UniProtKB/TrEMBL annotation, chain A:
The gene is pstA. The lineage of its organism: Bacteria, Pseudomonadati, Pseudomonadota, Alphaproteobacteria, Hyphomicrobiales. One of its GO terms (biological process) is phosphate ion transmembrane transport. It is a multi-pass membrane protein. Keywords: Cell membrane, Membrane, Transmembrane, Transmembrane helix, Transport. It is found in: Cell inner membrane; Cell membrane. It comes from the Bacteria. PROSITE patterns: ABC_TM1. This is Phosphate transport system permease protein PstA. The chain crosses the membrane at residues 30-51, 237-258, 278-300, 306-328, 349-374, 424-444.
UniProtKB/TrEMBL annotation, chain B:
It is found in: Cell inner membrane; Cell membrane. The keyword Cell inner membrane applies. It comes from Devosia aurantiaca. This is Phosphate transport system permease protein. It comes from the Bacteria.
């Protein structure tokens, strides 16, 4: 009996199945292991990227300040007294005289003032030539001192304690961004300057502080240690403003038309396919569109936030349209029928009843679309926003650059030792803005959905 | 200043006309108690529309034609002998000077007496035309307002009129999407056509040497062979897909089939963070971290790997695409009917056997569509390759060497250049057209497959 069942075809199959179970369960484990591995890899990349950027960027938020006592020596500042308002009949004459005086002041050699104060700070008997000595302070120090004097001409002959930035090369040496063991030929600073910097650090003339200059200064080529993000940030804000003002109403209106009003026809099918494709067109193609249409045909100013904003608007539109359509589609038919049944017109039904319900998802999609546009670089390069701009754009028609483009420009700077951390710092600022926007989107969605 | 005045005037018009229409409508109700067709806000909007549309039309007309009229007026101010002595650029320079005098900015150098008088005349002309346009706009708006106000009665179907205007506005907004496509195609085709008047299309599409002579002008343009760029693009895309497809697909399978609910709720957004990071950040990551790492790793194995190479750009681009592949695959796996899976379990299949033998074959078309979308994305990606591909447009098969791509060459040929006259900058549009056509075909095909797949299980 027992042998009978053992030899029956069913039993043989059962045995085959049982003997293969080990192998099958093993392969199940392996398959699952691959899944976990894939997740670990993907999450690992996220962590790696953030850790890498932060590790590189955080040191750049520290700047080296030189505390100097600057003497406005009348022998160096050999200039006629500043014109006083009451000496002139009209405002125009006074302005002209003031400008002439400022030109005279600008022609003075302010480097001598800086040099004198550096020499004074150095220990007695330090043998160092003026070029080497001046390489310790950033080149904008002389402008800083000059502006102080222009603002307050009574400083002549007085001594003032001020902070100026140490030069980018000095900062590299202090932070160890450059290998201290390298020979003189590979060092960017001469040996006496390096020795003096170390002395300054020891005696407290140079101290480190938070690098506010990143947030308060515009980009600078001549004074890299003073290069900041303010101009790029303002350019980005202008573009975001244009995107929000244009893309959101147009996108939502287009979605409402397509979803609620458009008759189902070949034309609306075509529009739908067209919008889906626009969403997948490479961003650089939108840059080409901007260069050809807005700049070459319409003669809008090159490098201006208005062009960048328009290009990003066109790029963001499909995203907003698709998201809004999805939200409108999700509204329950009962709501529509109830509104129509109470005698509302189609327009009233949409604007008074359907749209308010979809508001949270439209808002979220909009913020995410804007955040995406904020990080876009390639199309901006093609409409000339790559130009070096050292000013804060006051209107959207002024020359400007944008945060991601500033990152692109900084990563290409020759002074790699100094600008690599600074680029990473700029990336941290960009990521912070994006995370903030995404956080706001998530927060608003949960808040508004709960209320709805 | 002028813009502010115009905005203020328009706002006042808007407010007054709306309020007045609204008030009149309210009056209708109290007067005779007749049932009014539209609610007061529709009467207000009706009167506001009738006011704003004529006023805006006048302003728009001036905006379109004003510059031309001013220009011909200024030219008419110039003495005959001066006009004859100037060529086109000279004339433009003089007009700019006169304009500067008129606006009060002042100009550099000596001011000729005729320039001075023309500047003063232009200033009063500018003031008069501005004031005139504004008055005309207010009058047109006022006329519309009076007409609309007189029409407001209990029987007026104001709501229907207002809704018709709203409908037209909505239609205009959705036309923007169409216009964008038209604009893209028109600009790419016209500029690329100009390029092909310099360079034979056969030399462009089948040339094997990419060596633009950026200083050569139209006479000596250099060589524009697409193939090295295309090869570089395809190589980087292939490497990116080799990274993104296994990782993305397995991540999607694990998240949708195995992962506990809480884990999925945490891990999915974290992976999607990758999709939100700007590509310039990935480019920087590739340039300063991944590239040197691959170079050192290669040296360890005795391989010479360039820090900026097809491999570097491809790997980082693959990382960027992971969330794209995984979230699309996730959606598609979730659309496979439960019954298929339950059937396989019922027959005693393990979970992985079900996934491999039932779920994946059923989802295959959709997944292929998702991959094609990812490919199209990789082909069009710019910043990672600009920073990390090494920009060496030479035809070669070694992924450890620097390459160049279509997008890199567009950026190289077009940045900072605005007069699209020579083949050096126009080639950007020919490359853009190629890129647009390739990605468009991929997208249409992929969207078609995905849609077919969805319909299959609906």
């Amino acid at each position: 009996m027992a042998t009978d069942t053992l030899n029956s075809p069913g039993a043989a199959r059962a045995r085959a199945v049982r003997s293969s179970l080990r192998r099958r369960h093993l392969s199940e484990q392996i398959f699952r292991g691959f899944g976990i591995l894939a997740i670990a890899l993907a999450l690992g990349f996220v962590v790696l990227l953030f850790v890498d950027v932060f590790r590189k960027g955080i040191p750049a938020f520290v700047q080296s300040n030189l505390h100097l006592s600057v003497t406005f020596d009348p022998e160096i500042i050999d200039v006629s007294p500043a014109p006083a308002r009451n000496g002139f009949a009209t405002e125009a004459e006074f302005t002209a005289a003031s400008l002439a005086w400022q030109r005279e002041v600008a022609l003075l050699n302010w480097n001598q003032v800086i040099e004198a104060s550096l020499r004074q700070a150095a220990p007695a008997g330090t043998d160092i030539d003026s070029r080497t000595l001046l390489s310790i302070a950033e080149t904008n120090a002389r402008h800083q001192v000059r502006e102080m004097f222009v603002a307050n001409p009574t400083l002549l002959g007085q001594t003032v304690e001020i902070d100026v930035l140490a030069s980018a090369n000095a900062a590299n040496w202090i932070k160890g961004n450059i290998n201290r063991e390298l020979g003189d030929a590979q060092q960017q600073l001469a040996a006496p300057a390096r020795a003096l910097i170390d002395t300054f650090v020891d005696n407290g003339t140079i101290s480190n502080g938070f690098a506010w200059s990143i947030f308060t200064n515009v980009d600078s080529r001549s004074a890299p240690a003073a290069a900041g993000l303010l101009g790029a940030f303002a350019g980005t804000m202008w573009m975001m403003l244009i995107v929000i003002v244009l893309a959101v109403p147009i996108g939502v209106a287009a979605a409402i038309y397509l979803e609620e009003f458009a008759p189902k026809s070949r034309l609306t099918d075509l529009i739908e396919v067209n919008i889906n494709n626009l969403a997948a067109v490479p961003s650089i193609v939108f840059g080409l569109l901007g260069a050809a249409v807005f700049i070459n045909w319409f003669h809008l100013p090159i490098s201006a936030p208005i062009v960048g904003g328009l290009v990003l608007t066109l790029m963001t539109l499909p995203t907003i349209i698709i998201a809004t359509r999805g939200a409108l589609m999700g509204v329950s038919p009962a709501l529509r029928q109830a509104a129509l049944g109470m005698g509302a017109s189609r327009t009233q039904m949409v604007f008074h009843h359907v749209l308010p319900v979809t508001f949270p998802s439209i808002l979220t999609a909009t913020i995410l679309g804007v955040a995406h546009a904020l990080g876009e670089t390639a199309p901006l390069l093609l409409i000339g926003m790559k130009a070096f701009v050292a000013s804060v754009p006051a209107t959207p028609l002024d020359q400007a650059t944008a945060l991601p483009v500033q990152i692109f420009l900084w990563q290409g700077n020759e002074n790699r030792n100094f600008f690599e951390p600074r680029t990473a710092a700029a990336i941290m600022v960009l990521l912070a803005v994006m995370i903030l926007l995404n956080g706001v989107a998530i927060f608003l969605r949960s808040r508004l959905e709960k209320r709805a | 200043m002028n813009a502010l005045i115009i905005a203020a005037v328009l706002l006042v018009l808007l407010g007054v006309s709306y309020q007045s229409g609204f008030a009149k409508s309210r009056g209708l109700v109290t007067a005779d108690g007749v049932k009014v067709h539209s609610r007061p806000q529709y009467h207000g909007s009706y009167s506001a529309l009738w006011t704003m549309i004529p006023a805006l039309a006048v302003l728009l007309l001036w905006f379109w034609f004003g510059a031309g009229i001013t220009r011909s007026y200024t030219v008419g101010l110039l003495p005959q002998d001066v006009l004859l002595s100037l060529d086109q650029t000279g004339l433009n320079a003089t007009l700019t000077r006169i304009n500067a005098l008129a606006t009060g900015y002042g100009v550099a150098g000596e001011v000729a007496p005729y320039e001075q008088s023309a500047g003063e005349a232009l200033r009063s002309f500018n003031f008069l035309t501005f004031a005139g346009t504004l008055v005309l706009a207010v009058l047109a708006g006022g006329a519309g307002f009076v007409y609309a106000r007189n029409r407001i009665s209990a029987r007026l179907r104001a709501r229907n009129s207002v809704e018709r205007v709203i409908g037209l506005l909505l239609l205009a907004c959705s036309a923007v999407a169409i216009l964008t496509t038209v604009g893209i195609v028109a600009s790419l085709v016209t500029e690329a056509f100009k390029f092909f008047t310099f360079i034979n299309p056969i030399d462009f599409f089948f040339g094997t040497v990419w060596a633009p002579n950026n200083a050569g002008g139209a006479a000596n343009p250099g060589k524009y062979g697409l193939l090295p760029l295309l090869a570089g693009t395809l190589m980087i895309t292939a490497i990116a897909m080799l990274v993104a497809v296994p990782v993305g697909l397995m991540a999607a399978i694990y998240l949708s089939q195995y992962a506990p609910r809480q884990f999925r709720a945490v891990a999915k957004p974290f992976i999607e963070i990758l999709a939100g990071i700007p590509t310039i950040v990935f480019g920087f990551f590739a340039l300063v971290t991944v590239g040197p790492f691959l170079r050192d790793f290669g040296a360890l194995l005795g391989l010479s790997v360039n820090a900026t190479s097809a491999l570097t750009a491809g790997v980082v681009m693959g990382i960027m695409i992971i969330p794209f592949v995984s979230s699309l695959s996730d959606d598609i796996l979730n659309q496979v009917p439960r019954t298929l899976r339950d059937g396989a379990y019922g027959l005693g299949a393990t979970q992985s056997e079900t996934i491999r033998n039932v779920l994946l074959p059923a989802a295959l078309p959709g997944i292929v569509g998702a991959f094609l979308l990812a490919v199209s994305r990789a082909i069009g990606e710019t910043m990672i390759v600009v920073l990390a591909s090494g920009n060496s447009p030479v035809l070669r098969g070694n992924p450890l060497e620097p390459v160049s791509t279509i997008t890199v060459s567009i950026v190289n040929q077009l940045t900072g250049d605005t007069d699209f006259t020579g083949p050096q900058s126009l080639v950007g549009f020919a490359l853009g057209l190629t890129l647009f056509v390739v990605t468009l075909c991929l997208n249409i095909f992929a969207l078609y497959i995905v849609r077919r797949f969805r319909e299959q299980y609906e």
